[in-house]
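Record passed on here:
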Amino acid sequence: MLSYRHGFHAGNHADVLKQVVFVFLLRHLVQKDKPFWCIDTHAGAALYDLTKGYAAKNAEYETGISRLWTHKDLPGPVADYVQQVRALNPDGALRLYPGSPQLAMQMLRKKDRLRLFELHSTESQALQEYFRDAGHRVVAQAGDGFVGLQSLLPPPSRRALVLIDPSYEDKDDYKRVLVALREGLRRFATGVYAVWYPQVQRAESRRFPELLKGVQDKDWLHVTLTVKAPVAGGLGLHGSGMFILNPPWTLPAALRPVMPYLIKVLGQDDRAGFGLEFKLA
């Protein structure tokens, strides 16, 4: 929805899951010498100040990154993610938080490319201004990422990571994600596609994982982080999921120690839990 602002949710428990996986995928892709493209269909703003504005209004980061900030026993992928956040806060105080565009910019090499879409007029303007001096490495566009994605596939490098994380405030987003994945695979079958979705008390959300599994018979991974029991009769966020098509074969093993740890630190009641399932070639 055009009223949605990423800043409200910057650094919350759902964002932690998304960014831990996203950082791992970026880290995997930069290990090979060949360049790749990172495409973010719903980029939001690149950077958030947690001390003011939308991020401070509900302080949702207190359910996520804030709980991890002082821990010294972080599993590898979580430590990598937190280190990327620390790079923006060199004095050790948690103030600035990177959105996925900033995380990608920090981790991509000069030969890699970043392509960003954002539909919200204020957010897209801020995004374009933020990357104004980034040169040809980054192209930030105001527009519908579902539509823009297909114009970029396949990328010239024939390597790409596509992050798809709409707000889902419009229930049609669930259908549009499925269409985007099927069309993306038709155009570029070997790309890595990472989809975030919310766990809310909505029929579309509950059946979404099974529909995602139907997009491709194999080479997928599904991980969920549930931090609390659903609110009775409400649509509040009680968890989230990440679904990856064509994941690195190392991802399941990497997530096995991560998910129990996140439950221990981010879980809010005895209904907290996680799921991890995959079907690799």
